[in-house]
Design goal:
394 residues
Length: 394
């Protein structure tokens, strides 16, 4: 029985230690990054806004994009009104954007909308690159400058910081802002420092037409951004991180909508873990690609709530088992080290999130958020529909 208990505790300790070691290393490397030299401001961009029934927000987003600090004759605003049944297209045209209307009851989703817009941009042969901004986002004026500066130095894919537009709206959005500090800032800074790929985050990213020709966009899963970031890695391209620019989007504050967003992301990520881990590991070995190896490791590290539950289970079971058999208390040490590394990672994310002292109070509610999320993820849900999910009440 004692041997079996050691085996069971080891089964908990190994994934926890691997995940926390990975996160701990990235945290240590999350210092500030140098800025590239300014661009020549000669490149041309199609700024693409995929929108499905976004009449409530499209005007604000386009107004933000109009304030971009880039020559007006070198960027165009393109809205993809995808299967819209509201006035999104009319409002976008009224705001001066070029509108592509797409109606396809079978091929639905953000990925199909993006491919439609990318193909249109390619066929017009005007832009050097495309930028993707969500229809509910606001961007920093230096967004295109940050992309152009890196493209002129050889980059083909760039991700800006993806922030939270409404962090103070509810306890969920406050915790999401801290989570973005860990997932989007800590990890992205470290991966950029190591010359790895920070991946795509769905909002505030850019790819050149040059790379679209080499790695055509065919990402239609629930997490199309993550999928295409992996496809770029497999094709030999890394996504560079432009942390000095940002695209901030609204996060769900109501329970029902937050549940739908969370489930969609969780299901999509787990699908990609099953489908892409082995191809990435094979490419890492055959091509000696650290980019592909890191993308595989990033996939295998589950969301922080799962890692936290893993560590908590290890500590709790090791403590209980130690009451029965003192020799089993040895497993408390890896559990404590994992908890320390995970805490270090989360606190660094809090620091970079800018939430201040109030953020520490919000973190006290994190266990309740984890419990809420886990219960909701376990419920069944129709995952196929792409719909605006951020502006509904609780």
């Amino acid at each position: 029985m004692v041997t079996l208990a050691h085996v069971l505790l080891a089964a908990l300790a190994v994934p926890a230690a691997a995940a926390c070691a990975y996160l701990g290393v990235l945290t240590l490397l999350s210092g500030g990054l140098p800025l590239p030299p300014r661009s020549s401001r000669r490149l041309r961009f199609d700024v693409i806004v995929p929108a499905h029934n976004e009449a409530a927000m499209i005007g604000r987003s386009l107004a933000s994009l109009r304030r971009l600090d880039w020559p007006a004759d070198r960027f165009r605003l393109v809205v993809v009104a995808d299967n819209c049944t509201d006035t999104t297209a009319v409002l976008a045209r009224g705001a001066g954007a070029r509108v592509l209307e797409r109606n396809d009851a079978t091929l639905r989703g953000k990925g199909y909308a993006l491919r439609f817009a990318f193909d249109d941009s390619r066929d017009r042969r005007w832009a050097d690159a495309v930028v993707v901004v969500d229809a509910d986002a606001e961007v920093s004026p230096n967004l295109i400058e940050a992309f152009a500066a890196r493209i002129e130095r050889g980059a083909d894919a760039v991700q800006a910081h993806y922030g939270v537009l409404n962090p103070a709206e509810s306890w969920r959005t406050r915790l999401i802002a801290i989570a973005h500090g860990t997932f989007h800032t800590v990890r992205s800074r470290a991966r950029e420092r190591l010359r790895l790929s920070c991946g795509l985050r769905g909002n505030g990213w850019c790819v050149t037409h040059r790379v679209l020709a080499r790695a055509p966009y065919r990402a239609f899963s629930l997490t199309e951004d993550l999928e295409y970031g992996i496809a770029l890695g497999l094709a030999g391209h890394r996504v560079e991180y432009a942390g000095e620019a940002h695209a901030d989007a609204e996060m769900a504050s109501g329970e029902m909508i937050a549940q739908r967003q969370r489930q969609r992301w969780e299901y999509g990520r787990f699908d990609l873990v099953r489908a892409q881990t082995w191809p990435l590991l094979r490419a890492a070995l055959r091509q000696r690609s650290p980019v592909c190896l890191d993308l595989a490791l990033d996939l295998l590290v589950l969301p922080l709530s799962y890692v936290a539950l893993n560590v908590a289970a290890l500590l709790a079971l090791a403590a209980l088992a130690g009451l029965w058999q003192p020799s089993l208390r040895v497993w408390l040490w890896p559990g404590a080290l994992c908890a320390a590394a995970l805490g270090f990672h989360v606190l660094r994310g809090w620091q970079l999130s800018g939430r201040g002292a109030a953020g520490l109070v919000d973190l006290l509610g994190a266990p309740f958020y984890i419990l809420w999320k886990m219960l909701r993820v376990l419920r069944s849900h129709d995952r196929r529909e792409w719909a605006p999910t951020r502006r509904q009440g609780p």
